Each structure stands twice: as structure tokens, then as C-alpha cells.
UniProtKB/TrEMBL annotation:
Pfam families documented for this protein: NERD
Species of origin: Brevibacillus ruminantium
Chain coiled-coil ranges: none
Transmembrane residue ranges: 23-43, 49-66
Name of the protein described by the UniProt record: NERD domain-containing protein
Ranges of residues in domain NERD: 77-197
InterPro entries the UniProt entry points to: NERD
Alphabetical UniProt keywords: Membrane, Transmembrane, Transmembrane helix
Length: 248
């Protein structure tokens, strides 16, 4: 089994922080609204103004809670995708290391990388998306399109930034970062849609796009079958040691 190294600044921590915020908005914010309404009543004594404050407070409370809940859903979905991918990549041989949720800073700009695989066949940057529905597009598109069926059976679509382009940026920054420490090596990007309910039709020649539907082991075979560059045990260890410092 591969050595899976988790970042301490992981999505699980972000999820806990977001849940705390949700609890505050759910319980604490109404208290602040109540205090504000009492002050409004005492200072102005206007019933109409008081009722307006009540409805305005409830409206704001509802919007803030909805936003916080949406953030929790997004982070939770990302966390599930990360866990599923970690479990999959962990099935690589023990000569490989998998680093999750790594932030690289190059030229004053940051890349938050979902997964980095380092092993005998090279270095791989993997961008994971835990989206369902039909995903369509190509590597040249700025955005991909997700087609879904809603809870009531209606169809709708939404666009999101093309992960092929996103992982291309990650590849450049990681390669530049490694070169800075005299660890020049080819870095290969990969996009993986981990949701079993995703049907992916994305054309990409330079950066392979895999999905759970086509068989999760495809990504494992791709990593192990590459022969573009073979990393020595020493160089692999140096790269893993360097990147492991970014998980602290």
C-alpha cells in the first residue's frame, strides 16, 4: 500500500470550522436580532418600525443560514471526494507516496493541490472533482458544463472552471517549486471525477481525464504504466520529504 500523507490544513478542519459558523448563525444570530429589536422598540417605540425589524431580521437570518449550509455541502462533497481518491491512490504499491491537500506558492501565487503522487514512474498532480450528472466540454474550454436532474425531476445546467486548465496551472507551479530545490522532474497532470454518478465526456489530449464510471483502477494503471521518466529511490524520497513539510 502507498504511503498516504494528509495535510493538517485539510478539508476536514475547514468543515469543522464551517459547522461552528453554522451553529453561530443558527443560534447566536437570533439572539443578536432579538437584542437589536428590543433596543429598537425602546428607543423609537414605533410598532411599524419594530415589525419591519422583525421581518428584516428573519429574512437576513434565513439568507445567512442558507449560505453557510451551502458552503458546508460544498466542503463536505469535496471531503468525500478527497477521501475516496485517497482510498483509491492508497492501493498503489508501497514504493509510491500520496500527499493530499498541498498548497504550493510560486512567484507570489498559490495553488491548492488535491493530490500529489510521487513514485518510480514520476510525479503526478491530481485534481479531484466530486460532481455528479453529465459533465461535458474539452481541454480548450474555459469552463465545463454540468447537466443535472433536480429533485423535482427538472433538468438544469451550470458551468464551472475547467479542471483541466486548473491542473495545468498546478503542474507548472509544482514543477517550478521542485526545480527551485534542484529536483527538476517532469510533472504530469490528471483530472479525476470521483463521483460514481458522474458521466464524463471531456476531450483532453495532454492531461488525461478519468472518472469512476469508467473504472476507478484506470488511474492506477495510468500512473504505474508511465515510462517517461523513472525516479530513483533517493530522488523520490527527497521529493516526498520536501513536500511533506508543506503538510505541517
Amino acid at each position: 500500500m502507498a504511503n498516504v500523507i494528509h495535510s493538517k490544513n485539510s478539508l476536514s478542519i475547514q468543515l469543522k470550522q464551517q459547522i461552528v459558523k453554522q451553529i453561530f448563525f443558527l443560534l447566536g444570530f437570533p439572539v443578536l436580532i432579538f437584542i437589536g429589536l428590543i433596543l429598537l422598540k425602546v428607543l423609537f417605540g414605533n410598532q411599524t418600525l419594530f415589525l419591519f425589524g422583525v421581518f428584516a431580521g428573519i429574512f437576513i437570518w434565513g439568507i445567512l443560514n442558507a449560505k453557510q449550509y451551502t458552503k458546508i455541502k460544498i466542503i463536505y462533497a469535496g471531503l468525500q471526494g478527497e477521501k475516496n481518491t485517497n482510498r483509491l491512490l492508497g492501493s498503489l504499491p508501497e514504493s509510491y507516496a500520496v500527499l493530499s491537500d498541498i498548497t504550493i506558492e510560486v512567484e507570489g501565487k498559490r495553488s491548492q493541490i488535491d493530490h500529489i503522487v510521487v513514485g518510480p514512474t514520476g510525479v503526478y498532480v491530481i485534481e479531484t472533482k466530486n460532481l455528479n450528472g453529465s459533465i461535458v466540454g474539452s481541454e480548450s474550454d474555459h469552463q465545463l458544463v454540468q447537466h443535472k436532474i433536480g429533485r423535482r425531476g427538472g433538468e438544469y445546467s451550470k458551468s464551472f472552471y475547467n479542471p483541466v486548465k486548473q491542473v495545468g496551472t498546478h503542474v507548472y507551479r509544482l514543477a517550478t517549486y521542485l526545480k527551485k530545490y534542484s529536483l527538476d522532474t517532469w510533472v504530469q497532470g490528471i483530472v479525476y471525477f470521483s463521483n460514481p454518478d458522474a458521466e464524463v465526456n471531456v476531450n483532453s489530449e495532454k492531461i488525461p481525464v478519468f472518472c469512476f464510471e469508467e473504472g476507478p483502477n484506470q488511474i492506477i494503471r495510468y500512473v504505474m504504466d508511465q515510462e517517461a521518466e523513472t525516479l530513483s529511490v533517493e530522488k523520490t524520497k527527497r521529493i516526498v520529504d520536501l513536500l511533506s513539510k508543506l503538510t505541517l
